[in-house]
Structure formats: C-alpha cells, structure tokens
Design goal:
Shape: globular
Largest sheet: none
Order of helices and strands: HHHHHH
Strand content: under 5%
Structural class: mainly alpha
Number of strands: 0
Number of helices: 6
C-alpha cells in the first residue's frame, strides 16, 4: 500500500500536532505524565517511517529485481535508516535525561543529534557538489 503525498503530509501534521499539544500540557504542568509518554506520537511516527524504509530496502531482495537500477538508491535508503536510528537514540536519551533516569551530561545526550546533523550536512554537500559523469 503506497501513501499519497497528501496522506503523508496529513499524517505528519497529525503526529506533530499531537506531540506539540502533549508537550505544552507537560510544560504547563497540566499533565503530570512521564516524558516517554509525551513522546509517544514521535515514537509512532518514527516507527512507521523505519518500517517503511525497511520494507523498501527489503524489496530489493525479491526475485526479478534489477540491481543495476538504484545502487545509489539503496545507499540513500541506508543513510535514511541510520538517520532515523540516530534521531531515535537522541529522543530516548533526552527522555531519560528529562525523566532523571540517568545522570548523563547534557552534552552526551546530544551526541546522536550532532552526528545526525553532521551526516545531513555531508549528504547535502555530496548531493550539491557531486558531478555525475554518465
């Protein structure tokens, strides 16, 4: 089942809106919820994206797939998967820090996010300055 662009945008808006409402309720101290509960919309959305990426990557393993088409595509999908896992690691570390489950320094909490941002800048630079020679 493929989702149209409109469905993806609507789903993104819905999960973002739910997260922001829950975040505001938590910050205004109207909801005494655990930080891991506040991030449930983020966890659900990320899980959907990770499953979709894994399914697309696994589609390369089916019979009849021509590997000459899209060797760059699988690298890009692998990068997206790594980026999603780095974002997930950051969110988990942030929730653990906010919930005071760990005494980890805040700088260590942000290491996955920094790695994600550096990787994104490298990917952007590669896509801008990569000259294809066909």
């Amino acid at each position: 089942m493929r989702m149209s662009l409109a469905q993806r945008v609507l789903l993104t808006w819905l999960f973002t809106l739910l997260f922001l409402i829950m975040l505001v309720l938590k910050l205004d101290e109207k909801a005494p919820w655990n930080w891991f509960l506040i991030f449930i919309p983020v966890w659900i959305f990320d899980t959907i994206l990770i499953v979709m990426l894994i399914v697309k990557m696994a589609g390369r393993c089916k019979s009849g797939f021509d590997p000459r088409n899209g060797s760059q595509n699988i690298k890009k999908k692998a990068w997206y998967l790594i980026a999603m896992l780095l974002k997930l690691a950051f969110c988990l570390a942030l929730c653990a820090k906010l919930q005071r489950f760990t005494t980890m320094k805040l700088a260590y909490v942000f290491i996955p996010l920094w790695a994600l941002l550096i990787g994104a800048m490298v990917e952007l630079g590669y896509s801008i300055f990569n000259v294809r020679r066909d």
